[in-house]
Amino acid sequence: MECQVTFRHMDSSDSVRSYAEEKIEKIQKLLDRRVEAKVTISLESHLHVAHIELITDGSLKIRGEHKSSDMYASLDAAVDHIMRQVKRYRSKIRSHRESTHGRELPHKVFAPAQEESKTPQIIKQETEVARTMKVEDAVMQLDLADSEFLVFTNADSEQVCVLYRLPDGQYGLIEVHHAA
Predict the structure, then answer these.
(1) For residues 62 and 76, what is the distance between their CA atoms, to the nearest angstrom?
(2) Which pLDDT value is given to residue 123?
(3) DSSP state, residue 70
(4) pLDDT for 2-25, tens place per residue?
(5) Spatial CB neighbours of 130, under 8 Å, sequence gap ≥ 6
(6) pLDDT, tens only, 112-140
(7) Cα–Cα separations (whole angstroms), residue 22 to 5, 75, 135
(8) Phi/psi of residue 177, each to 5°?
């Protein structure tokens, strides 16, 4: 975990810094992946402002901000806001996994072709379900999953799609159109 704590318009405090880092660690455990956190603590008029931005290794960005008369209360409220977002994402993904509706697709694993045989050999065969979901939900699921691609059925077009992660953090989408 990488946690950067910045103080603006106020003196830095080791106790507030360590408190923020402890809170971010709890979020990282919930996400179960590498998290980069940017915490900005500032004083605006008489209010203490805690602004937290999390970026996961899958480039999922989550933000939380809160203002109050107490710095620790502001941090707690901003972290609670982020925790609610993370839990909502996780429950959406869990409901997609539990969902059985979608297209069944054959999945085969091939061994490389040997010298004597010019064709690759099938070593494993199973059926995968391309669950029905919107593209936005597929992006969210790919962000939280530890995978480079996701096969799903687009809820809008009803076409089988492959969503994949590009090296620069953007996404590619391949949509399969069936010939008539």
Answers:
(1) 15
(2) 85
(3) S
(4) 889 999 999 999 999 999 999 988
(5) 102, 103, 104, 105, 151, 152, 153, 160, 161
(6) 877 777 778 888 888 877 888 889 888 88
(7) 12, 11, 34
(8) -105, 130
